[in-house]
Amino acid sequence: MHCERAQEFFSDYLERTLDRPMTVALDAHMAACASCREEVDALQAMFRSLDAVPEITPPWDGAQQVIQRLREELPEPMVAPRPIRMPQPRLQWGLLPWLRSFSPASVAMGAGLATFAIAGTFLIPGVPNVVKNTIFALPGTTSAVTPTAGAEAPAVSVSYGEPTDAGQPISLHILSATALPDAEVTGTGGGRRFAVTDLSPQRPVNIDLVLPYNEGDAHSVWLDVASRSSNRKHSYLVVVPVRKAANNQVPLVLENQPIELALRSLAPALGQPVVVVDRVGERVSINAPDPLPAIRSLENIAADAQVRVSNENGSYRLSPAQ
Amino acid sequence: MDQRGASSFGGHQDDAALIQRARDGDRRALEALVQRHYRTVFNLAYRLSNDYDSAQDIVSEAFIRVHNALPNFRGDANFTTWLYRIVKNVFLDERKKQRIRNHASLEEMVDLEDSAVSRQVEDPRPGPEWQMERHERADLVQRAVMTLPDNQRLMIALYHFQHRSYEEIAEVMALPIGTVKSRLNRARLALKNKLDASRELLES
Q: How far apart are the C-alpha atoms of A278 and B93, rounded to whole Å?
């Protein structure tokens, strides 16, 4: 066998996929040819080098950038979610003192029309997840609360890895579409209070937390982003599952629990983080292949969670209970 | 255990449900597919382009094509393989455009890459030595991969970085398995020669 002919089978030779006569022929050639032996050894070493090339960490908001481009370039889908006008919700959340100066009627109307969104992706064991949530604007809130330009709440994304004995490290990334130089981000998570300032479109604010994972199946982090100059405040509840619930079932023992506990139960059932914006509102969209089991279970616990779950054209909605 | 050929995010069935919803016009299902496959596809695009911005462009364009081609997607086909094929087409189209723009010959590109290697060697970087070595080795490999012709680069990336099986690569490249195997063998030998040349440059 000539060297050139032998070379054609080097990969198969290394992977031991040659038939018996060809293996014997190659073995004989290798025994006689030092140069081909060296080649094969070098090739094997190269396989190891290729295996050692690490995975690239993509930009943290890369997936969201792709989604943004899809939204800009593709025509609107045929099935568009329709907002529902809601009556005044029973939930009343703490607003900043400067919001209290508005008339109760205007605040109530704003809250009544406000939207909250739940979105996300999947908990994949062993693969750090980057979850970017679409934060909906607050349509219909009073103009004093929502400025005319840049009406969207800053986007919050969550990244997290596998739980460890020491806890589960998670990072919250907050990126504002508009500069909010005087914004204060405050919140609690993992038994720790945090406060950061200065949000800009160029630079996300990152908050790294290590959350204990022996306190149930999910973590919750409360977050407020407030800016006096733009007269805005957005509140977030981020619920991150620690483990995936078996069969997507929400344990019914959680019946008659407040919404945070209900969501701490929903997140593991969905296997994905849940981010609630501004805590009052009507609509939820869930990117899960089959959210029905979780939703059905949630309906059972929704009674006293002050939410109502309805399915409309495949879009699941949470609304304040009547 | 060899995970080669295993679907990157495991959920063939999950994909099928999302694809069905995306075909029905549910934009959120399409966005969920982006979330699920972004990391894998970005990695392939990066290994082909060696540039974050170009990789991001390739991924975006690929998902736009996914959207447009969804009505033609066969339900029984593997979405990941289909996605890889679209990424391959985007990459090859981009390269064609680049060639028209730059009139750059392969030889010129090789020269450029070689000088990039020598520049990098002269540039001492901080950090623990082992980490530096690992990164330098990975850089060296990546630069050598970049000097390969497009189709060889694709096959090396799919097999060695994406851990796809020969069968899957055959589907992605639309080639018979035997051809994939023989071309991959040639690509590896070519890559080994490039790496030998880079190492000699390093040692001299």
A: 45
User: What sign for the dihedral angle of Cα B150, B152, B155, B160?
Assistant: negative
- The Cα A289–Cα B19 span in angstroms is 10
> A152: which DSSP letter?
S
Contact A314 B21 (CB under 8 A): yes
Give A39's contacts in chain B (Cβ within 8 Å): 189, 192
Picking from A224, A176, A235, the residue whose alpha carbon sits closest to that of residue A200 is A176
Given this model, what pLDDT does residue B9 score? 37
Q: Do the Cβ atoms of B113 and B142 come closer than 8 Å? A: no
For chain A, give the number of residues.
322
List pLDDT tens digits, range A52-70.
888 888 887 888 889 989 9
The tokens for A86 are 């809601």
Q: Is the CB of A49 less than 8 angstroms away from the CB of B59? A: no
The DSSP call for residue B72 is: G
Question: Scanning the structure block, which residue is given the tokens 């090739």?
Answer: A43
pLDDT at residue A144 tops 60? no
Judge: B11–A314 Cβ closer than 8 Å, yes or no: no
DSSP-derived letter for residue B80 is: H
pLDDT, tens digit, 9 for 90 and up, residues B80-126: 999 999 999 999 999 888 877 765 444 444 443 433 333 333 333 33
Report the DSSP pairing between strands A205-211 and A274-277. unpaired
Query: Which pLDDT value is given to residue B185?
Result: 95
